[in-house]
Design a protein that fits this description.
Blueprint lengths: L5 E2 L1 E6 L26 H14 L4 E6 L7 H16 L6 E6 L7 H13 L4 E6 L4 H7 L8 H10 L3 E8 L7 H13 L4 E6 L14 H14 L1 E5 L5 E5 L2 E5 L12 E2 L2 E3 L5 E2 L8 E3 L1
Parallel strand pairs: 1-11, 2-3, 2-12, 3-4, 4-5, 5-6, 6-7, 7-10
Antiparallel strand pairs: 8-9, 9-10, 12-13, 13-14
The protein binds iron/sulfur cluster (SF4).
């Protein structure tokens, strides 16, 4: 039995579970019943941030069972907890918001929130991308239209925050090396030069009808191996690549906690205030 030596990051679910999109493959839906005000959530988030920082963690990800920007006050509260921790020394170089990006096309929304979120420590906004055109985005999100990606990224940058792309690998979408290469080139042309990818799947890490084929995923990994320079690997699989000066990252959707390993990929702060060693809570409880 190994002792834990490293806790790389914290992922926290925030928000009331509402969403302005309606994806067929939504993995957050099963967690929405828990998405209500919980007085212990802030305490759990603070403890998880401090624990990860003590164990060499460098990244906080804010996400939701819905769309976090649809409940902006909950995001402000989570960032206030982070700011308190950072002021006490539990600082993360990467504080990322994961979003479908829709509300960042709204100038008023950006003016109202982005400066204060940046001042509380947010430094990157990661936009979930199911394709590289607004039409592909609208189709995946089951919307009549999706706003201009250039408008979204421009608004975020105008407020001093970094933009990242989460290019999701999905059957019928980006599911092969050719489509991955084309998508990467288009996104880089649009100014999105830091792109993370993982295959969509079930919350327990298993495959579902929307997961790309194993062959397609292997093709994408091989394309990276042939065309980009590996900067570092992740102990849980995948890694970070330099592709002509752009950052490409490939990883898995979730990593099951293994008590025999001496690392934790991420502490997950659930909305019922449970903190677990992975998205799969069974056998991975850390704090209640
Ligand atoms: S945007 Fe995210 S939370 Fe909303 S329906 Fe799609 S996958 Fe679910």
């Amino acid at each position: 039995m190994a002792c834990i030596e490293k806790i790389y990051s914290v992922s926290a679910l925030i928000g009331n579970g509402s969403c302005n999109a309606n994806c067929d493959f939504c993995a957050g839906k099963y967690l929405r019943p828990e998405a209500e005000e919980n007085k212990d959530h802030s305490r759990s988030l603070e403890a998880a941030i401090k624990l990860s920082a003590r164990y060499g963690g460098w990244s906080l990800s804010l996400t939701s069972s819905g769309e976090p920007t649809c409940d902006p006050d909950s995001l402000t509260r989570a960032l206030e907890v982070y700011k308190k921790c950072a002021d006490q020394g539990a600082y993360f170089p990467n504080v990322n918001l994961f979003t479908n990006g829709i509300l960042f096309a709204d100038d008023n929304f950006c003016d109202e929130y982005l400066d204060s979120w940046r001042d509380l420590g947010l430094n990157n906004v990661a936009i979930s991308l199911h394709g590289v055109t607004e039409e592909e985005q609208a189709k995946a999100y089951n919307l009549e239209s999706y706003p201009s990606l250039e408008k979204i990224t421009g608004n975020i940058r105008d407020h001093g925050l970094g933009v990242r792309g989460t290019l999701l690998l999905r059957k019928g979408g980006v599911d092969s090396s050719k489509k991955y290469q084309d998508a990467i080139h288009t996104l880089i042309d649009k100014g999105i030069d830091n792109i993370t990818s993982w295959p969509v799947g079930n919350p327990d890490g298993s495959r579902n009808e929307f997961s790309p084929s194993r062959l397609g995923q292997l093709g994408i990994k091989t394309w990276l191996w042939r065309n980009a320079k590996k900067c570092h690997g992740h102990v849980w699989g995948g890694g970070v690549y330099d592709y002509k000066g752009n950052i490409l990252r490939i990883t898995d959707y979730v990593t099951k906690h293994d008590p025999k390993k001496d690392f934790v990929r991420q502490l997950v702060v659930f909305q019922d205030s449970t903190v677990a060693y992975s998205w799969i809570r069974d056998g991975a409880l850390c704090m209640k």
